[in-house]
Amino acid sequence: MAQKNVNIRMDEDLKKEAEALFSELGLNMSTAVNIFIRQALRQGGIPFEVSTHTDPFYQPENLKRLKESIEQLKKHDTVTKTSSELGLDDA
């Protein structure tokens, strides 16, 4: 099978992150892109959902709570409660 080069443009930081991830998986960028293309061809479309809906985890109010919790942990300003104190033993 003849090999052809394909050039794509992407943000430099995005490329570095992708290369690091693929390296952890034992892949290089070329192999990862080839896997994506093969899966798209097999499935007849993008091999994952593409949507304008955002994951509720990333809603601003949730991210604010997470940042506040992280700051509390950094300050060692946390409260320890047992599962029964939280009412989890009844679940």
Any idea what the shape is?
elongated
Q: Report the structural category.
A: mainly alpha
Main beta-sheet strand count, sense and barrel state: none
How many domains make up the coordinates? Answer: 1
How many beta-strand elements?
0
What is the N-to-C order of secondary-structure elements (H for helix, E for strand)?
Answer: HHH
Helix content: 40-55%
- Bin the strand percentage: under 5%
Calculate the terminal CA-CA distance, rounded to whole Å: 59 Å
Low-confidence residue ranges: none
Average of the residue pLDDT scores: 89
Question: From the alpha-carbon coordinates, what is the Rg to the nearest angstrom?
Answer: 22 Å
Helical element count? 3
Keywords: Toxin-antitoxin system
Pfam families: RelB
GO biological process, one term: DNA-templated transcription
Protein name: DNA-damage-inducible protein J
Structural key phrases:
91 residues; 3 helices; 0% strand; elongated
Please give the structural blueprint.
Layout: H1 12-24, H2 29-43, H3 60-74
Question: What this model shows, in words?
Answer:
By secondary structure, the chain is an all-alpha fold. It has one domain. Helix content is 47%, strand content 0%. The protein has three helices and no strands. It is elongated. It starts with 11 loop residues before the first helix and ends in a 17-residue tail after the last helix. The model has no long low-confidence stretch (mean pLDDT 89).
